[in-house]
Amino acid sequence: MTENEIGTIVIASAIAIHRELGPGLLETVYEIVLARELKDRGLTVDRQVPVPIQYKDIRFDVAFRADIIVAGKVILELKSVERVTAAHKKQVQTYLRLTGCKLGYLLNFGGALMRSGITRCVNGLEE
């Protein structure tokens, strides 16, 4: 399955969850439910994935934790905030660069409409 095919399933799942649960819950609630929904749709899902980085001569085994990585290809960063900032978007871009993944989504479940809370980020992905 390609990154874009996975992305289509991720977006459909996020919209369905937001319609059912609405905005305003903690990010962890959306993370648990989204992981389950994606698994139910046949995808491999890993939550709170530790990602190492190398800085100079120092290796950090757990530099950060990706909220969800789908099929080892697509990173999902979940938020439940009133407004997404440029820093949130940069966070996903940095995660993509450090992991080598080509596609990521910033999913903000805090807004009234899920569609306005979806930010697609790419890192060398061929369209």
Order of helices and strands: HHEEEHEE
Largest sheet: 5 strands, mixed
Taking all Cα atoms into account, the compactness measure Rg is 14 Å
What number of structural domains do the residues give? Answer: 1
The secondary structure category is: alpha+beta
Tell me the total number of β-strands. Answer: 5
Distance between the termini: 14 Å
- The CATH class label is Alpha Beta
In CATH, the topology is named Trna Endonuclease, Chain: A, domain 1
Describe what this molecule looks like in 3D:
The chain is of the alpha+beta class and 127 residues long. It has a single domain, classed as Trna Endonuclease, Chain: A, domain 1 (3-Layer(aba) Sandwich), CATH 3.40.1350. It is 37% helix and 32% strand. The chain has three helices and five strands, in the order ααβββαββ. The chain has helices spanning 3-21, 27-40, 86-99; strands spanning 45-55, 58-70, 74-79, 103-108, 118-122. The chain has a five-stranded mixed β-sheet, with helices on both faces. A hairpin with a 2-residue loop joins strand 1 and strand 2 (58-70). It is globular. The model has no long low-confidence stretch (mean pLDDT 94).
Task: Please outline what is shown here.
The protein has 127 residues and is of the alpha+beta class. It is built from 3 helices and 5 strands. The longest helix has 19 residues, at 3-21.
Keywords for this entry:
3 helices, 37% helix, 5 strands, alpha+beta, Trna Endonuclease, Chain: A, domain 1, 127 residues, single chain, five-stranded mixed beta sheet
